[in-house]
Amino acid sequence: MSEIYIGRSADFEPGSRRVVAIGKIEVGVFRLLDETFVAYENACSHQGGPVCQGKITARVVERLSDDKRSLGLCFDEGEPHLVCPWHGYEYALSSGRHAADPRPRLRPIPVSVSEGNVYVNV
Amino acid sequence: MLPDSDSPDPARRVVELPVREINSLTDSRDILRHATKQAADRGFSDYTIVDIDSHHTETESWSEILEYVDDDVLKQIGQSFNSNTALLGYAPGIRYQDLSGRIPHQTKLAEKVDDVSVHRDVTLSRRSMEGMSLDYQVMFPSPMLLIPQHPQPDVATSLTLAYNRWLTRRILPSDKRIKSMIALPMNDPDACVETIDEFDQCDGVIGYMIMSTYVKPVHHNAYMKVFSRLEKTGKPLGFHAGHNWGDGGISTTNRFIGMHALSFVTCNMVHMTNYVLNGLPERFPDLKVIWIESGLAWVPFLMQRLDNEYLMRSSEAPLLRKRPSEYMREMYYTNQPMEATDLDLLQSTFKAIHAETQLLYSSDWPHWDFDLPSVIFDLPFLSEQAKRNILGETACRIFNLELKKDTIARSRA
User: How far apart are CA B47 and CA B50, in angstroms?
Assistant: First the structure.
């Protein structure tokens, strides 16, 4: 494993990303809405699509009334999802797990912040 | 600039990708960059790969197509709409396909194209062939696939003929790798025969296509002269599935996923059922039939269902000389969108349809549920020759296309 410097943490706006090639591997590095960083290999678990270059959008939930009637769809802004642009496979950005099935998941890449610098281990 | 971008160690060299987020303006080759890498990793240059089902968005060229409408009054009406969906009877439900912008290549391929020596659609097709390592690509329309549902049959026929003329004059002659199966105006059987006669010898025409139609059942006597004429051409007939949100029980589905999952399949299931039970394979034994864009999972279901009932009620299908499934096993199928969430079931399906000789690779690019060649190549239960057949060699055989030289050399070896 090599520790690779990606950039200054201050250069990442909340909710922003960088997608980089490190040798032969592509990695997406994301800053969540707080100070947390996550990183994944840029390869969808479905057909290998460039998932880290996909749209980031809020999770969609369906609200039910107490008597189980549908009250329609709405966004859960607290849980951003990363969507593969090839086919729409949708993952929780914070965990890399598929939004609907815990089995498909993105390959996490260890990421750390030290003295204001962001590193990934590949 | 990233600090390690100049590292002498290639494994530590960091390069930021030029496309941070893919959108509708992104070049197809950038969208498909991982597919290109898959092709290199798998040695696809040694395979002949034929994509039996891809699409262009003909409504982007709608004013050009309207120029080919024969009826001057209809043409004037269409041009007065000043819209790229004029006269189409466009179904608004189809706009759900891009998942609210989550799948940008479905929304629109709005990328920059500088080459003006050929039509823009030719360039887009070339880029997708380059991206997926394809040798031939069969091009179909997109919104026009629903034209048989048009409330005005004569308009549907006129637009279908105009599209075919535009396609054969503006697109197909530009690149020998781009092929098409000509759309039949099924609202009008006489016009179908005229269409076959007009386009059969055009460059790039390798077959014919019935779009998602419920105009008349395919066994209607009015179509027998069409099938007879098709059989004489020696070219295959494709049934390209389509959806119809207003159709019977489908109209009760409230989400696009539900409508799409059912409607693309019931479309071809109904046609297949009518085609087989009315003995059309016996009447036109030399007509090769291909079932396109409804996936594969429905085929073994229908084989079992029809066989089971046929053995109890054979008097209702007296033209048959064998079980329905035996006719179905002699037909051809395209994979996309291949249901691959259970490989055991998929393997059974491949066995049921004799995939090694009857399955044809199709991408459906640039639609949201497209399949790459790797979905076939990576299947663990296929032999090397089965992969080669499905990816392109079977298509070359039934469409009379040339194999790539490398593939011929390998076969001789």
Answer: 10
Find out whether B39 and B138 touch, Cβ atoms under 8 Å.
Answer: no
A90 phi and psi angles, rounded to 5 deg: -120, 130
CA distances, B291 to each of B153, B268, B271, B372 (Å): 24, 7, 10, 18
Q: What is the pLDDT of residues A42-70, one digit of tens each?
A: 999 999 999 999 999 999 999 999 999 99
Question: Across the interface, which of B11, B12, B21 has its CB nearest the CB of A53?
Answer: B21
A83: chain B residues, CB-CB within 8 Å = 99, 102-103
**pTM for this predicted structure:** 0.95
Q: How wide is the angle at C-alpha B164 spanned by C-alphas B192 and B191, nearest 5°?
A: 20
Q: What angle do CA B275, B396, B46 make, to 5 degrees?
A: 140
Residue B92's Cβ-count burial label (10 Å; 0-12, 13-18, 19+) is exposed
Distances (CA, A) of B64 to B222, B265, B308: 32, 33, 50
Q: Which chain A residues touch B if contact means CB-CB below 8 Å?
A: 2, 4-7, 17-24, 26, 42-43, 47-50, 53-55, 57, 83, 85-88, 90
> Distance, in angstroms, between A56 CA and closest chain B CA?
9
Give the DSSP per-residue string, B60-89.
Answer: GGHHHHHTT-S-HHHHHHHHHH-STTTTS-
- Select from A28, A35, A45, A41 the least CA-distant residue to A14: A35
**Percent residues over pLDDT 70 in chain B:** 94
| Tokens coding B129 | 């062939």
Q: What is the pLDDT of residue B395?
A: 98
E strands, B211-268, in order = 237-240
Q: Which among B144, B141, B139 is positioned nearest to B87, based on CA atoms?
A: B144
B376 in contact with chain A, both atoms CB, cutoff 8 A: no
Q: Which region holds residue B68: left if phi is over 0, alpha if psi is between -120 and 50, else beta? A: alpha
